[in-house]
Amino acid sequence: MKLKIMKKKISILLSMLAFSCQSKEKVQDLPQLKPNKSMEIQNKLEVATFAGGCFWCTEAVFLELEGVKTVTSGYIGGKTVNPSYSDICTGNTGHAEAIQITFDPNKISFGELLEVFFATHDPTTLNRQGNDMGTQYRSEIFYHNASQKKTSEDYIALLTKENTFGKPIVTVISEATKFYEAEDYHQNYYNQNQSQGYCSYVITPKVEKVRKLFKDKLKK
Hints:
Blueprint: E1 11-16, E2 26-31, E3 46-52, H1 55-62, E4 68-76, H2 85-89, E5 96-103, H3 110-119, E6 128-129, E7 132-133, E8 139-143, H4 146-161, E9 172-175, E10 180-181, H5 189-192, H6 197-213
């Protein structure tokens, strides 16, 4: 299917990325959110925190974007202090696998990050992404200020109005709590393990599609 981008319309035709590390690719109409200029902070970096399934996949995607300075894999949203990966895998910590993004709002807006977030996972499956099941794989936006909260609410309302996914969106919007960095071997995992079977078979196609769909947002 040929991809067409109608920049002057609210909807852009997107071939959706694999919704999770194990799910099949889908094609969806995804509305484009206009940058919220009021939340841009001159000469300062901002932080965005998203949970959308396997953090190896989400980390690899957001590292591609111009204006993104760092992406850190970690855990957030639970009560367990200093959780380990083995703790997270039990599904009993309350934490989600997540990424914390440091970005320059003068180069990429929080709204644009949301576009990529919703295009790269399935926000309609509760506590699940493909074959990854458990609360640690939930879809959640952890906002860091009132502007991020409102932008997230407005965008989900827009997606719902457009019936983009054909199902109710279950993504939760929560205030950011303490973020715990994951173990060192989880950081920049894809770029250091591209020859590994899981990376080459699952993550590489996802990154390649991001490069195709969001080529105007990629690092030069």
